[in-house]
Amino acid sequence: MRVVVTDQAFGNVDREHATAREHGASFAHHQCSTEADTRQAVQGADVVLVNFAPITAAVLQEMSPGGVVIRYGIGYDNVDLDAAREAGIAVCNVPDYGPDTVADHAVSCLLALLRKLKELDARVRSDGWLRPNDLGPLPGFAQTTVGLIGTGRIGRAVAARLRPFGFTVLAHDPFVPAEALEPLGIEAVSLDELLSRSHAVSLHAPLTEGNHQLINAATIATMKPRAVLVNTSRGGLVDQEALADALEGGRLGAAALDVFDPEPLAPDSRLRALSNVLLTPHAAFFSDDSLANLQRLAAEEAGRHLTGQPLRCRVN
Questions:
Q1: Catalytic residue at 304?
Q2: 102 near 153, Cβ under 8 Å?
Q3: What's the pLDDT tens digit per position in 15-47?
Q4: Strand 168-172's sheet: what is its strand order?
Q5: Identified catalytic residue from 105, 199, 282, 305
Q6: Of 23, 95, 234, 267, whose CB is crowded by the most CB atoms within 10 A?
Q7: Are 158 and 106 in contact (CB under 8 A)?
Q8: What does the DSSP 8-state code read for residue 64?
Q9: Active site residue 282
């Protein structure tokens, strides 16, 4: 049996190595970024633990039949699920390692945008001082509506954090009935209504073929003037060029982005030059506790496969 980590951003893979050793499997650790590197790394692997390396059809063909790919995290859009099914490879994710950490990051970004902290800080540094109203209207939180696109673990954790501030919280999630959200203080609405009513929109949906570039020129046109956008979910949910146009032209007030398409964000991206954009490097998941949970849960899933037990979080 062979366990392979294709890539990671955790600093060590001690827990994964220990799991392999416990079950008599060999272990290898890499930092792959290309298909060619990944193909070579996973040759003969029974268990592949992956962060961002591309798990394509060609990569999957290099694995042992009946193997498993375990994605460090919730999303798995870097894994070709159709090819995995055809190759007889199971694919698992780790959906519950740190929803609170991502929610903390999303809400921190949201509050910073609504209070215009980045702009206020920049003006004090550049101009020495300013009057608070120099940056235009600043509604109180009790007069502010936040729209959540997606109400899984993270979306609901965001709503719980917003509630004490007095925000009105809307949500659009075609897979969750309104009666499940009402006790949480969340009003279920259509996407069009959410965009037209919200002063701030926060994305918490997985990336699928159906919602690729859900935030685009057309949907941005339906948003409130000067609304703000937060994306801690998947970069492909947003048309970055359309977003840059809206931010440059003043159609939107600001954005906070933790995820991009592609990643890293291109050096010449217009988003880098905009003062009303807050950028973080796919770090919303990051905390000491969440990383420990992520590696533990991934290693435990690997152990289940190595001992022939049912997988906990299979997605294909």
A1: no
A2: no
A3: 999 999 999 999 999 999 999 999 999 999 999
A4: 186-188, 168-172, 145-149, 200-203, 227-231, 252-257, 277-279
A5: 282
A6: 234
A7: yes
A8: P
A9: yes
